[in-house]
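User: My advisor, Dr. K., asked me to get a structural model of this assembly before our group meeting. I'm new to this, so sorry if the format is off. These are the inputs:
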Amino acid sequence: MAETTIELRNPSGLHARPAATFVKAATGFKSDIRVVNLTRDAERSAVAKSMLGVLGLGVSHGHTIRISADGEDADEAVRTLREMVEAGLGEAIGG
Amino acid sequence: MKASVRGVPAAPGIAHARIWRLPERSGGVGSRGLDIGLDQAAEQAAAELESLEQRLRTGGRVDESEIFGAQALMAQDPELLDAARHGIDHGASAEEAVREAGEQAASMLETLDDEILAARAADVRDVAARIARILRGEQPPRLDERSIAVALDLPPSITAELDPALLAGIALEAGSRTAHAAILSRALGIPAVVGARGLLEAAQGGREIAVDGTTGELFIDPDAETLAEVERRSAAATVQSAADAELRERPLQTADGHRLLLGANIGQPGDVKRAIDAGAEGVGLFRTEFMFMGRATAPVEGAQAAAYAQVLEAFGERPVVIRLIDLGGDKNLPYLPVPPEENPFLGVRALRLANAGFEELILTQLRAILLAAERSGRQPWIMAPMVADLGDVYRLHELVATAAFGRTLSVQPKVGIMVEIPSLALIAELVAPEVAFFSIGTNDLTQYLLAADRTNPGLADRQDPLHPAVLRAIRGVVEGGHAAGIPVAVCGEMASDPAGAMVLAGLGIDELSMDAGAFGAVKRALAGASLSELQEAARHALHAESAKDARAVFESMREREREAVG
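Assistant: The format is fine. Below is the predicted structure of the whole assembly, which you can bring to the meeting.
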């Protein structure tokens, strides 16, 4: 089990394009990966490999999310996803 | 000719071709549902969407391609497919189950108070419809020859499948200028008419259709005479657009070089490219209502800010005038429960909402504009409509100050007002020192001054802003504004009418803002006369007996000009 907490800084939130990047990356791991939008609803988690689940978290600019993984590649999954969110998931983000 | 229908012009141009209709849903539910299972259908849908994404990406349509990339993931979404399987286990057909699952996912996205994510709801429904289509054993829609698409509405997945080389035009019974199909048409440079009520009935059994995307006219199975007229218009439009392209680089100025700023009126960020391509020197009117219509809750600050920032960034140093929402009881919005009014145009709307229990709605929009300014580093020009007197101006400044409270503003907004209520025109010089700019909304100013409802077609002949009373009101606003050293613009339809633009230049207006489609005609009109000639003609118009007489003065000047050129 591994987890991390990070703020999303994409200007338009986790909309279609960055969400697609995120989901595709998550799908590449064997572990069960879940995401929670701590800013909106800390009780509700979504499957990171589900586009609709991730979109449904309604992650806007400045929201904080928690990524957790359970499985043989859990550490690597959490580290990789965190790095991708930090780098803007393919979008330019302000400092 | 079989029939003609009129709709809303959504993309200019003229085309005549075979009618292509969206394939009807064939057979009953699950007619061929046994041949292919849910998982297989979902896989095929994802494959179709991925190849669409690829095709659009290599075709340079990157923004559109991303929608399909996201849709491809939705088609393989474990939650969507689990929900559909659950439905099948409970006795639903695969097609019913996937549609129901899509509907549930779409409603879930719609409840999120986020404009951008809520827009994905339509994408999910579209994906579910695609899987359902595959389950029915149907092929994706395609064109076999040059055709005009005639439909109730066209979802993005359909328009993207249609070969742009064969798609000659679009005619929709529903939809608005901002519908996806309309935006696509403008991007492809093909004509489109939307919101054409009665189209589907009129087109029943028809073979061909002619579309005039400039006037909004649709002719089903046109006769020889109509076709000749359509061809004449098409030829004239070709000549015109070549001449307009040549004009693009020229500024908006009189024959002797007196310049006016040329602004574009836009209704959403998607209009920006067309405005810039046409040579806009700024945005004179950014109508913000598009984000507020047809939804259950008001858009949140972040979603609004994203849209405003997009426009501010695109125009860079050039001014962008963002108009605060002009909404009222007539719009029937669930989050704006204004009691019914006899005269909504004279009622609680726009800035007046702030004093009627909806202050937060205005404050959220102001905060979003300030946030967009910070993110883009550009100065926004904030414009309030429905301002009647100094009390309203002070209230406006108070609202801006409240919205800015606790923020460090690196860029100060300019705060100005739309002049459309006659009372304000009468006291313009009292108000001018308190604001950064005036922009005259001639449509409402005319209807209020002449007491003629502009939504009543029976009063159309009483709507001419060249009426001497309207011109005198405008003169008063220009004098009041200039005495205080602030710019005075016009952002109503009058600015896009060649005769109107000429009289406005003669009255001393600093900026004309209009739909980008009118730039060429207005540049030509001003280039035909010197400033002193226009001033002289404007003086005549101020004393004309009627709008018709005033118009005649300018039409005769244009006639002279045409003769001189010819």
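One thing worth pointing out at the meeting: Chain B has three domains: 3-22+145-227, 38-135, 256-565.

User: Perfect, thanks a lot.
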